[in-house]
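Posting this for the archive.
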Amino acid sequence: MMNRFCLVFLSLFSFTVATAAEPVISEGNKSLPLPGESFKLDEHDAFVILPPNADANIPWIWYAPTLSGLPAKSEVWMFKHFLAKGIAIAGIDVGESFGSPQGRKIYTAFYDYLVKKRGFRKKPCLLARSRGGLMLYSWAVEHPQSVGGIAGIYPVCNIKSYPGIARAAGAYGLTPAQFELELSKYNPIDRLKPLANARVPLFHIHGDNDKVVPLEANSAELASRYKVFGGPVEIEVVTGQGHNMWKGWFESQRLTDFATACALGHPLEKRKAAARLER
């Protein structure tokens, strides 16, 4: 009798824990540059922009940072191209968490919700704009098997470069001195090996005159380290451009084609072969 009681109790306890872990989805009012769905996941603003006739096994682009005013009209050209290929775009606002454990936890809840509840594919392509790189890379290095590829527009990859140790430390619950000592545990450029082992392809476009997110300390350093691990990476350096709203960042055919191929699950080798044929 006691054993049966324990089993019933454990079953009820397990059900309660599982239920408590479910995210709370509520109505949102986030403004989007294209028609889409705005909602809140555990009180964090989130969005989904679906292609026509999306039902199940939906390929998707994970956009960051989904802060106030982002994504913006600057992304419309890319987004329309993704939608035309049957690819959804989605994102969630984790605030200025700088890739911290709390921000990564929210990202995991968002990913699980889309994949398990909404029929999204298991391997999105991550699209990192500026500091969105710090957020997405910090999540990706811990979930390499859940990433189809990473595309970046002057993305932050190095906490020490931006926002800097002093500013980021608070988001990690550490003092600047503590954070500096433990930086390699959190900094994306120090944690790339799992992504390389999973053969996750990376493609960034970055200006050589970027004063906010310097090329050498971010995309160039990331590429150098990724190659050491044998990971597939390509950096397109744009001469004379900085951290700005130049149209070419957001209407890059190469970056859009790369993200499309990764979201659809096309192997990197096939993508390059197709590009050669098009020429």
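The radius of gyration is 20 Å. Residues 39-278 form a domain with the Rossmann fold fold (CATH 3.40.50.1820).
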